[in-house]
Design brief:
The chain has helices spanning 40-51, 53-56, 78-85, 99-105, and strands at 5-6, 10-18, 24-30, 33-34, 60-68, 89-91. By secondary structure, it is α+β, with helices and mostly antiparallel strands. It has one domain.
Length: 117
C-alpha cells in the first residue's frame, strides 16, 4: 500500500522537555506528512530526529506539539486527529510510555537515558 501524504506545509511549534537540561522550543514547517494514523510513530520520530537529533534526544522526557496550517481542513486528517487526541503530548519516561511512544523510540537512542517520572 502506498503512503498518501498531505502536500501543504504544516506549521509546527514543538516544546522538547529533557531530564537533564532546559526545554527547547522550536518552530518549523513540515510538508508531505503521511495522512494515515498508522504512520503516527514514524511522523513523530521524524520530528524528533530532524530537529534535535538522536544524541540530544537521549534524555527526552516529553514533547508538546502545536500545529497550524493555512489549509483549514488539515484538522480532518487522521494523523492530525491522533496528535490532537493526545493534546499534542508524547511522554517518554519509561513508566509513562504507551505503544506509540514505544514505537517512536524503537531502534533509536531516543529517551535511552530518560528516568522514570
Amino acid at each position: 500500500m502506498n503512503k498518501i501524504t498531505f502536500k501543504p506545509s504544516i506549521d509546527h511549534n514543538v516544546i522538547f522537555t529533557f531530564d537533564d537540561k532546559i526545554q527547547d522550543i522550536l518552530c518549523f514547517e513540515l510538508a508531505n506528512i503521511p495522512i494515515d494514523e498508522e504512520h503516527e510513530a514514524e511522523y513523530i520520530k521524524r520530528i524528533i530526529l530532524n530537529t534535535i537529533g538522536e544524541k540530544e534526544a537521549e534524555t527526552l522526557c516529553k514533547i508538546s506539539i502545536g500545529l497550524s496550517c493555512k489549509e483549514k481542513d488539515f484538522v480532518k486528517l487522521p494523523i492530525i486527529k491522533k496528535v490532537f487526541d493526545r493534546n499534542g503530548k508524547y511522554y517518554f519516561q519509561p513508566n509513562q510510555r504507551d505503544d506509540i511512544e514505544n514505537q517512536i523510540i524503537e531502534g533509536t537512542k531516543i529517551a535511552s537515558l530518560t528516568q522514570n517520572f
